[in-house]
Amino acid sequence: MTFEKNEKAPLNAGQEAGGPRYTLEELKEHAEPLFSVKEEVLAGAFFGEQDKLFTVAEAHTKIEQFMKAKVD
Q1: How many Cβ atoms are within 10 Å of 66's Cβ, its own excluded?
Q2: Chain-wide mean pLDDT for the chain?
Q3: What is the 3-state composition of the chain as percent helix, strand, coil, each rounded to the nearest 5?
Q4: Is the pLDDT at 58 greater than 80, yes or no?
């Protein structure tokens, strides 16, 4: 599998241009080498956003926010 196949993928509403975009499944497959987290963390950080495409930078930001979120 190569990430380059989604480089020209259309943007979803609310997403900015800025590099190749990947499905959540592609990011999950490479969660540990890219983000140093298990794919379960991505599942939590991206809950409800399974049909969107993300850059690696966007994914990293969402994971950081998820990991820092306060738990009640």
Answers
A1: 15
A2: 82
A3: 50, 5, 45
A4: yes
- Tell me the C-alpha distance between 32 and 16, whole Å: 25
Short-list 13, 36, 12, CA closest to 23: 12
Full-model pTM: 0.70
Q: How many CA atoms does the CB half-sphere of 43 hold within 13 Å?
A: 4
CA angle, residues 38, 43, 47, in degrees to nearest 5: 155
Local structure of 54: helix, strand or coil: strand
> Does 50 have pLDDT greater than 80?
yes
Reported confidence tier of residue 69, pLDDT bands at 50, 70, 90: confident
